[in-house]
What does this fold into?
Amino acid sequence: MVNFRILINAKGEAQQIDSNFCADTTLTLSPFILPRILAGEAAAFELIKITGDQSFAEELINIGKQINLNMIIEHDLSKVIGDIPAHRIANTGEHLVQWQTENFDRISQALAEYWTEENIFLTKRATSNQFIQEVKNLQHNIEKLEQRLDRLTQQHALTDK
It folds into this structure.
C-alpha cells in the first residue's frame, strides 16, 4: 500500500507533507483500481473509500474525474518532441492502459469462473443459499422423524402394558 499525504493550502496548491499532520479527509483505493482510474473509467471512482470530511473528499474526486492525463502528458511531450509524435505517444499510452485494464478484468472474471465452476474454491451466492435451504429442510425432516419415533415409541409402550 502506498500512502501519499498532501496539504492543500489557502491558494489551492498541493504540497507534500509528513505524517505528523492530522488529515481532514482520507481517500483509500486499491492498487487494482488505479489503472481504471488512470484510464478515466467513471465507475472506478465509486470504489474509493472516504473517511473524514465527506464533501471535501467528493470535491477532490470530482476534480480527479475531470483531469485528462492523456492531454496533460501530450501537452508536456509536445514541448519536447513536437505535436504529432506527442499525440501518437499519448494515444499509444492510453490504449496500453485500456488494454491492461481490460485484460485484468478478463483474467479476474476467468479466475472467478474457474474457482466457482471447475475447482470449487469459491461458491456462488445462489449455490450457498440453496445449500443453506437444504440444510434447513434436512433439520426440519429430522425433527419430524424424531416426533414420529417418539409417538411410535409411546404407542409401543402403551401396547406392551
Q: What stands out?
A: The longest helix spans residues 83-118. The chain has a mean pLDDT of 82. The beta strands are 6-8, 14-16, 25-28, 49-52. The two ends are 78 Å apart (CA to CA).
